[in-house]
Amino acid sequence: MISYFAFYKVIFMVQLLIAEALFTFRLRRRSLFWLRWCLSAALCLACAALFPWEPQGPVSLSLIFLLLFALTLACGFFCFKVSALSLLFCMAIAYAVQHFGYCVSNCMLLLSGLNANVYGIYTEEVLSQHFLPVNEAFGFIFSFVIYYLSYYLFYLFFARRIRKKEDLRLRSLSLFVVSGFAILLSVVVNAAVVYGTTDGDLIVLFNAYNAACCLFIVYALFSILRRNRMEAELNFMHETLRRAREQYEASKRSMELVNIKCHDLKQQIRTIGRANFINETAIAEMSDAISLYDAAVDTGYGPLNIILSEKSLACRSEGISLDCMADGTLLRFMNEAEIYSLFGNAIDNAASAVRRLQDEQKRTVGVQVGQVKGFITVHVYNYFEGQLEVSADGLPRTTKKDAENHGYGLKSIRYIVEKYGGRMSVKAQNNVFNLNIIFPLPREGES
What we know:
single chain, alpha+beta, 12 helices, 62% helix, 9% strand
């Protein structure tokens, strides 16, 4: 029954290695990666070709394929510098994708009536029910096209979601274990079908069932990944707001102390200067110098004054101008720490962009808070150079090398905005980056 099994083992290994490449090549790699991967691929193909054990039933057939899969998994540790769970996640998905291609290929070839017994796994009784006497080379081509389309679609809808050098941070094992068991069951069921039935219709039915299971497994595992990402981002937002609350309280105390000291120093300068007959112009210059550290931004609302004054001083020290036209009283409905975090992140991102500009006249950050009809609008803008790349979530990609641990500033802003029923959008036009936020105007008693 398995007359071409030795040949199929090599074909299976090639298919599996390609599927694994789709889902692992974005992972963090070890040094000399390509040398490691080529050696691993050669070892896997050699073991598949030279594997001496001929299957005697569905259990032994399943075990052979699982052993070959285990070999590729071991080679994965040799090539990639990731956790065992992360690698097993990607490899299990790859196995499911390979098995999906195999099942769909069998279904299509059986239903089409083409002689596609290219691996010699079906009996003459099955062939007589479904196949037409067509050259086996055509069957190989047909099978290749089905595999190619299957792999391409899985890459398009799933594999691209794995971020480059991402730590997958998988913590939930329940669905992962169930999915792994489903893959194992699918392989065993397929082996049982190959050995246990000559009914072509039943073979088609079981292959369709296995393909559906593989598709569900891939979807379920990526659902785990998506949920873990969302949990990690939510935890990060909460931690960011907690730190913002602490920083706001510290900045509030510091700003109050600075204001008091600046006021006292101005008074002392005037007193000492007049007592010693110092020129009024010199006294005014010294007072102006001290005023640089005084709270110069007054929006009508203390929490917004604190963050804008703090960032104004920081920007001024780097030669960046912070222009503000804001009615802070409109933001009384928001938590003070969230105001601190929102405007702090927005101004930090803008300052980071203009800091690299060669034209000093463009090192400007603008902040506007106002009311338009029944909405509160927040507008933060700055000049920038280069191309703005937008990710799938609609936010600009971070330009920092450690992308995994950066780029959360705008996500944090969006989290705060959406908490209050607002909307956030970003737009780049004529080398000006615009962050636009809109809140519904709170009803009376809500602020």
